[in-house]
Structure formats: C-alpha cells, structure tokens
Amino acid sequence: MLFKSSVENSRNSFDLSKSLIFINMGQNDMDLNKKLGYDASLDMGQYLAEPLSKRLQVLYDLGGRKFLVSNVLPLGCRPFSISQEKPITRCVERLNKLASQFNSYLPQMLEDLQSTLPGSNFVLLDVYKVFEDVFSEPSSYGISDISHSCCAIDSAKQIPICKNGEVCSNRNQYALMESIPLK
To answer: Which of 50, 64, 128, 171 has its CA 20 to 30 A from that of 80?
Structure first.
C-alpha cells in the first residue's frame, strides 16, 4: 500500500491520530462490475465491505483514529447510467439495488470496528440519502436538471467521464457532474 509506506517513512512529520480520514469507495467497483456483466449471485455489499473493513483496520494500525466513511450514492440515478441503459423508470433500479446492497453493510461494519478498535471513531456519511433527496425534490436545492450531465459524456470510453474535461457554464443547475479527468 503506497499510503502505508508514506506514513511509515514520515512518522516524525505528522500524527495520523489527529487527522480525519475520509473514505469514499465502492462506486468504481460497481461501475466496473456493471461493465463486465453483473453476476446476480454475487453479494456486492459483502464483496466490497470485507476488504474495506480490512483496509480501515490497516489505517487504524498506522495511527488513524477518526474516520468519515461515505456510502455509495444512487448509481442508477446518475445521468451516465440513465443515458447508457435508458430505463423505463426515472432511474436504473438494478444499479440502485447494488448501491443499497453495499450501503446496508456499512453501519454494522463501522459499529463493529469502533467497538473493537480502542479510541477509534467511525462516522457514516449517508450520501445515498442526500442524493435521493436531491433527485426527488431538485428545485428545493436550486437544481433544474437531474437527467443530464453538466458535460458531454465520452460515451466512446463507456465510463462516466466528461469529454476533454469540459463542463457547462451553468453547472450549479445540475444534480451531478460526471468525473472530470485531470489534464
């Protein structure tokens, strides 16, 4: 782990126990699984939660004590997912189910980690709920478009990424911008 070697090499320059460690994972794994053909027998929540738990323990062993762990947003409501799969409902429910599956593991996993790792504090950031609210009542958030991306999606690459990194000028009116590549 590159992060582990960086922390070990600079132990004298900073104290990881005073840092807030933000973890946001799962979305790319689910996107990749979707592209490779989703295996419905695979419990995506368990498949992703177990390695996450182990990695959080490694971060704890390196000195981390305060963790903010984000769950996965409703993947099926992203403009990229909608444009690729053209669902008959507002969102691609199959993808939202994948996200919910993973998200269902997080509260208990974080509670278990906090109870077994002395001095640790794990907080769950429920971005699924935040975006669910935005998608159901966009005007309350000053958003006028939840169906389209704020950029031209590079569909040739079959991944949610803005073509040439260009975004629209009125981006505050959109619920989501897809990933923007670094140049």
So the answer is: 50
Q: Are 148 and 174 in contact (CB under 8 A)?
A: yes
pLDDT tens, residue by residue, 55-104: 999 999 999 999 999 999 898 888 777 777 788 888 888 888 888 988 99
CA pair distance 173, 20, nearest whole angstrom = 31
The whole-chain average pLDDT of the chain stands at 80
Query: Helix or strand or coil: residue 116?
Result: helix
Q: Counting runs of H as helices and runs of E as strands, what totals does the chain give?
A: 6, 3
Spatial separation of the C-alpha atoms in residues 162 and 149, rounded to whole Å: 9
d(CA 135, CA 149): 13
The whole-angstrom separation of Cα 179 and Cα 175 is 13
